[in-house]
Design a protein that fits this description.
Length: about 70
């Protein structure tokens, strides 16, 4: 949750910039789009497996170069 406190003498523009910066840093738009639609547990399992395989391949590639 984002909490932005407006300081005395702060303009609306700077306040809004501060809010949007925090919004991007927290990656809220990604979370909202991710939770917008229901995904079946089987699809979630498949996505996790794909990510695991992808991560493993990248690690293997990285360690291969290093040696």
């Amino acid at each position: 949750m984002i909490v932005v406190v407006k300081k005395q003498g702060e303009t609306k523009d700077s306040f809004f910039r501060k809010f949007t910066k925090m919004f991007r840093e927290e990656n809220i738009s990604f979370d909202v789009s991710k939770k917008m639609f229901f995904k079946k547990p089987s699809l979630l399992k498949k996505e996790k497996e794909k990510d695991r395989i992808k991560r493993k391949a990248l690690e293997k590639k990285y360690f291969k170069r290093k040696i």
